[in-house]
């Protein structure tokens, strides 16, 4: 049940992340500037995750991977999947809704991945919150972009 609360909070966070930049009427930022800028924070989180996985593997070889190393690897794999989705969808979002949207999504992404990573060790609902707050902004923004583009 608490996992569903994490998902619901992640969905609410996602709506806020997509709605807030639109409601503030921020200046237009071109997609070729915004999309690479939006990837900086997620990229830094990814660097940290890769370093953590590499360090755990370095310290445990040739032994089997520890449970912590497996958790780190799982979170890293999940983060890479989210980044691929972002790289596919965010350019369209930036072109249709403006670059400020993807900049906000980039910072939100980084924060949500850190919450998910911490939740993997501390409390499962936090992991679900982090997962949802990473995944749903991209989905909500994609739907909003298609609606703006087609209407």
Share of residues in strands: under 5%
Q: Measure the end-to-end span.
A: 38 Å
* Major sheet summary line: none
Q: Helical proportion?
A: over 70%
H and E string: HHHHHH
How does the helix and strand content classify structurally? mainly alpha
Q: How many alpha or pi helices?
A: 6
- Spans of at least 5 consecutive residues whose pLDDT stays below 50 are none
How much is the radius of gyration in Å? 16 Å
Shape: globular
Roughly what is the average pLDDT, rounded to an integer? 93
Strand tally, please? Answer: 0
Would you write up a description of this structure?
- With 151 residues, this protein is mainly alpha-helical.
- The chain is built from six helices and no strands.
- Helix 2 runs parallel beside helix 5, helix 3 runs parallel beside helix 5 and helix 4 packs parallel to helix 6.
- The mean pLDDT is 93.
Q: Which features would summarize this protein structure in a list?
A:
151 residues; 6 helices; mainly alpha
